[in-house]
Design brief:
This protein is mainly α and 64 residues long. 80% of the residues lie in helices and 0% in strands.
Length: 64
């Protein structure tokens, strides 16, 4: 997802999405270690999305 899409979400939605992405990252890392993962770029994309969410949550926290 793009940062613009994340900015439209509320803080609670962002926190839920972060949890979902962390679970997805765990599954991807597991598949990567067992050589079942075909597209290895999904790991880095998921990490980037988690970082975007954390950044936007921090920005919202500093605003309020």
């Amino acid at each position: 997802m793009k940062a613009v899409e994340f900015r439209k979400m509320t803080s609670s939605e962002l926190k839920k999405k972060e949890v979902e992405l962390k679970e997805e990252l765990f599954r991807l890392k597991f598949k990567l270690s067992t050589a079942d993962l075909e597209d290895t770029s999904k790991v880095s994309k998921t990490k980037r999305d988690i970082a975007r969410i954390k950044t936007i949550l921090k920005e919202k926290e500093n605003e309020g």
